[in-house]
Write a structure and sequence with these properties.
The protein has helices at about 1-30, 40-55, 65-70, 80-100, 120-155, 155-170, 180-195, 200-220, 235-240, 245-275. By secondary structure, it is mostly helical. It has one domain (about 1-275).
């Protein structure tokens, strides 16, 4: 398992190198001149250099090829792009529905919005919106590029998803056993798209879109996307399963069927693309 351990360590280093500076700049923005989101362009510039370095630019030259190949930011044919985005989007919608159902089956941990009430609306919204693409780029580079790639090639996709999903949960500092399936599902959605396209680019787009939804939902409703209300919804074991619950189950089943169909078409399109190479 030395290859897996090395991939995990390098992936975490990449994640920290992208996340810690963002957090520091955002915290500085909250303290100095919070009247406007000056950290957004600063973080954007840092992210551009961060991305170039991961793609192999900059010293040392001896690691340039490794960095480029490990990132897996390969070009993707248009047909694969279409199926990847459709499959991933269906998976994300299915996950949101599943989370709302889980909220009625078990008590999920609360997630509160950061203290943004004292900030000007433009600054608060600017920082939240900017956080989405930054997380999309950094986390996909770290977890689906540098971490998943070596594990996937050595041990297969399933093991790679199990490891990266667990590490993804630990990296978010809110790992509880009840949310472990959630992080595994996220890893499966983005990791399988990356596996079929052999590129993290579609996963970056999907991850950014998912983060935009969750950040806005957290800001508007002051709760996580998996919470049905500001308080926990009544569990079905206590209140019974009503029509709304079973209707949501039906919607989830339909979404899962559509998701599996889309991923099967993505797999077929990937095989055809490889055959033409």
């Amino acid at each position: 398992m030395s290859a897996a351990i090395q991939a995990v360590l390098i992936g975490f280093l990449v994640a920290m190198a992208g996340t810690i500076p963002r957090n520091l700049f955002f915290m500085a923005n909250l303290r100095f001149h919070p009247e406007w989101p000056w950290a957004v362009p600063v973080v954007g510039i840092y992210l551009w250099y961060f991305w170039r370095y991961l793609r192999g630019h900059g010293p040392p030259a001896s690691t340039s090829r490794f960095r480029h190949d490990a990132l897996r930011a390969n070009s993707v044919p248009a047909r694969l792009w279409a199926w990847a985005l459709l499959a991933g989007a269906l998976g994300i919608v299915a996950l949101v529905v599943a989370l709302h159902l889980m909220n009625q089956l078990v008590v999920l941990p609360p997630q509160q919005a950061p203290e943004l009430a004292a900030l000007p609306a433009g600054t608060a919204l600017g920082l939240l919106l900017a956080a989405a693409p930054v997380a999309g780029v950094v986390e996909e580079a770290a977890f689906r590029g540098y971490m998943q790639g070596p594990i996937e090639r050595r041990y297969g996709l399933l093991v790679a998803i199990l490891i990266t999903g667990t590490m993804f949960a630990i990296a978010h500092l809110d790992f509880t056993l009840v949310l472990w399936p959630y992080y595994l599902a996220v890893a499966a959605i983005y990791g399988t798209v990356t596996y079929f396209t052999q590129s993290i680019l579609p996963a970056i787009v999907l991850h950014t879109g998912g983060n935009l939804y969750s950040n806005l939902d957290l800001w508007i409703h002051d709760r996580a996307e998996w919470q049905a209300s500001s308080r926990h919804a009544a569990l079905i074991w206590d209140a019974g399963a009503g029509q709304d619950f079973w209707r949501a189950v039906g919607v989830l089943v339909a979404l899962l069927l559509a998701t599996f169909w889309a991923y099967s078409r993505l797999s077929k399109a990937a095989r055809l693309a490889r055959a033409r190479e």
